Amino acid sequence: MTQVQESSAGRAAGPTPPRNGWWGVAALALGTFTVVTSEMLPVGLLTPMGRSLGVPEGVAGLTLTITGLVAALSAPVLIPLLGRTDRRTALCALVAVLVVGNLGAAWAPGFGTMVAARVLVGVGMGGVWALAAGLAVRLVPARSAGAATSLVFSGVAVASVLGVPAGTYLGAFAGWRAAFWAAAGLGAAVLVAAALLLPRLPAETPVPLGGALRLTRDPRLRTGLVVVAFLVTGHFAAYTYVRPVLEDVSGVGAGAVGTLLLVYGVAGVAGNFLAGAGAARSPRRTLLVIATVLAATVAALPWLGGSVALAAVLMAVWGLSYGGVSVSTQTWVLLAAPDAREAASSLFVGVFNGAIALGALVGGLAADGIGVTAVMWVGGALAVGALVTTAAGRAPVAAPAP
User: Fold this and answer.
1) Smallest Cα–Cα separation from 139: which of 30, 26, 48, 47?
2) Any transmembrane segments, and where (predicted)?
């Protein structure tokens, strides 16, 4: 992150950051938390959702695939299409799209309506996430750019590890639709916060359509994006179907599943901050550790998860390792393209969400075709692919702290 700070220091001649800029950064962090939570809500609700909508669990998992695929395709395109639109206005409009999508999901009388609603969630999510990276450094002094960026993307990490347990608990007590109503309410709060706390943010240099793709000529950025693809695909191939796996292997009920996911989430928050500190010094070394632990833990769950106590330990280790993925890979991408943050982040969002979609799809095929526990072995194998790529590919080097 220090390199991001240094590259931002060159903007000394630009507009002075607003005095209340950290409140705007907090609004962006709440925004990234909300969009990623909205995307992943189906993970902990697959069983009741499928039963209510009249589809099997593998088909219900497509609600995650569709959202991730739409976000993956829309993020690199939305940034050029926004042109010179004020970024506060654009962010509020995209959050409004997200709110409408969550309201539609909460109301959906059938699977077709649910699919349409999840498309809207994907558009809102991809745009908000892609914009957030470039806005953080404009809200604070240059010396605080790295910390602001880390805080914004901590929303992604915390949503990845806490959003699903929260939705699972709410779904167990009030029904799965209540989780989507809550997500819509949270989105409305983000909309108000962004409108009140963010200053006007005129667009910086517009990104031409296709300009982001030219950044992939840098082998360091290409390596980082491939690592993202392997890690996130492997994780979601397994994690999308973690509820039926835990029910089959450990014999636990809905309440216990929520508790195990909460254990996973708490460990994941710790993993986020540990990995963030490590990635600032060496993104390669941090990701080597993450990929190794993730591969071993996911593959071991079907063998050792028969005991609820052992399942809890494995879920904690899983959360600790995956909790560091988003901050570590985002750090890698920003260090590889410090002068093209918005464009590089749009590629990161595209690959990350494409991998979520692919992971949910691969997991669904494995669950329906081989058996639900097979998703864990698929996830472990893909994590090994990330390990090999991280070790063999070119990595950016973090600048020493001043």
Assistant:
1) 26
2) 21-38, 58-82, 89-109, 115-139, 151-172, 178-198, 223-242, 254-275, 287-304, 310-335, 347-367, 373-393
